[in-house]
Amino acid sequence: MKISSKDGYLLSFVLFISVFNYIAAQDLHFSQYFNAPLLTNPANTGFEPDADWRAGINYRNQWAGILDDPYKTMSAWADAQMFNNRFENGWMGAGMVLLKDVAGSGNLSSTKVYGSVAYHQLVGYKSLLSGGFGIGAVNKRIDVTKLTFNSQWNGRFFDVTIPNNEVFNATSVWYFDLNAGLNYAIFPSDNAYINAGFSVDHINMPSESFFANTTADTKVPMRFNTFLNGSFKVNNQWIVNPNVYVSVISKSTEIVGGMNAHYNLSGDGTTQLIGGLYYRVKDAFIPMVGVSVSSISATISYDATNSGLGTYSQTLGAYELSITKIGLFSDYGTNVKCPSVKF
Question: Cys-Cys crosslink for 37: which of 16, 44, 69, 250, Cβ 3.0 to 4.6 Å?
Answer without folding.
Answer: 44
